[in-house]
Structures are given as structure tokens and as C-alpha cells.
Amino acid sequence: MPSVIDLRHRIRSVKSTTQLTKAMKSVSAAKLKRFQGLVLQTRPYAERLKGILRQIVARDSQITHPFFQNREEKRVTLVVIAGDKGLCGAFNTNTLKFAEAKIGELSQNREVALSVLGKKGVDYFRFREREMLFSKAGLLSKPSYEGSLEISERLIDSFLDGSTDAVYLLYNKFHSVSRSEVVLEKWLPIPPVVAAGEEPFPGYEFEPSAEEIFKAMLPAYMKNGFYRILLESMASEQAARMMAMEMATQNATEVVASLILEMNKIRQTSITGEILEITTASEAMKR
What we know:
By secondary structure, the chain is of the alpha/beta class. It has helices at residues 4-59, 91-106, 119-127, 145-160, 210-286; strands at 75-81, 111-117, 134-136, 166-176, 179-188. It has a 5-stranded mixed beta sheet with strand order 3-2-1-4-5, with helices on both faces.
């Protein structure tokens, strides 16, 4: 049975851990708010770009782009976006488990070139000696448009030069603080842009041509979409970490309460024993 001093040390240690988990929860909440804001900021730009593309298609429905080219998928690129850090519950475990399942499905009838973003994912596949086309750790800790641009341009170039027939992105789609979903999304090729009832630009003359503008804007739209996916994955990671730290704080609080109860029982037992000894000695002296 532990002594009262041992229990006091344990209570002090658990309380210190509680302070740490509370601090980490606060940090994750602040980061989550920042990434949510960035996701919201990218949406108007993406929606405006998409609207312009649709209006151009409404003006000239014969416009095409290499991004629309569907080829037989003999070799595909799978980009797995995991986290850079741990202490976020089952976030990385679920992502990598889902990735393993999808690699198995895609590998049945085509060659899969694996690319990994996030230190946890890189370490996971490197430990299992999986060949990776490219890997990058640290990008998600401080995601920037410049960093995402480097990756998205590399993926686009590999599709355009025929090195890969399709590009799939596996990431965590952010829905809310308490819910995110691991999804597999086909990034390239994309379905042709449809006018969807859009009215063509009335009376506008294009310089250069509408087709050239379309071909210049579509890659910008794709690169912005890739940056948004990185932000969503990072927001999901921070939400998972915040929830994990909240649960850790609650568990630590319960452990402290349990230790205090156990310490009080030991003290009470000790005091009761001392009282019995005094009473017994007193009765013996009377006799």
C-alpha cells in the first residue's frame, strides 16, 4: 500500500500534467481558429475563379484543357497528407490505416506511386520500407501558399508530362471541431467545367483570347484548391488535438480525485489505528 507521502507526490505530478494538457488545449484552440479563418478566406477566391471559368465556358463551350484528359490509369500518384506531430488522439492512426486500405485497392490493377506529406506519415512508411516518390515533413506545421505551390506544381507537371495518369489526394476533410472525415479525392484529371446556367460576359472582348485566359486561370484554381486541402487537414489535426487534450485533462482530474480519496482513506485508517492503540493502552492502565 502506498504511503501518504507517495500519494502526495503522485497528486502533485498529475496536477502538473493537467496544467500541461490545459495549455496544449488552449494552443490548439488558437491554431484551429487561425486555420478555420484561412479556410474561409480561400473560399471567396475559389468561388469567384470558378464563376469566371463557368462564364467563359458559357461563352465558348468548345474550350478544352489538358486537365480534363482522362487516360487509362496504369500509373497513379497517391498523396497521403498526415500530421507532423502526435498527441492528437487517433488522427494519424486513422489516416494511415485508411491510406493502407486505399493503397491495397489502387494497387490491384495499376502501379501506385506513393507521396507523403507530414512527419508522422513519412516516418510510418519509411519504417515499413515503402518506396516514396517524394516526401515532405514540416510543411503542415506552418502551412504556406508558397510551400503548397511547390507540391501542387510538381503534381501538375507529372500529370501533364504523362508520368502519372491520375493524382489522388488522401486527407482529413474538416466538418466541425468534433468531426472530421478521412477522404480520398481524385484531384487530376478533373471533370470538365460546366456552365451550369451561367450567363456569358455580356459585350466583353477578351485580350488575349477567352481560351488562353481559361487555360491560365484553371491551374490557379487547382493550386488554390490544393492549398485549401492542406488547411483543412491542418484544421482537422488541431481539432483532434484539442479534443484529445480536453479528454486528457478530464481524465487527469478524475485521477487526482481518486488519489485524494485514497490518500484520505489511508490517513483515516492510520488515525483510527492510533486512536485504537491509545484506547487499548488506556484500558490496560485502568486494570
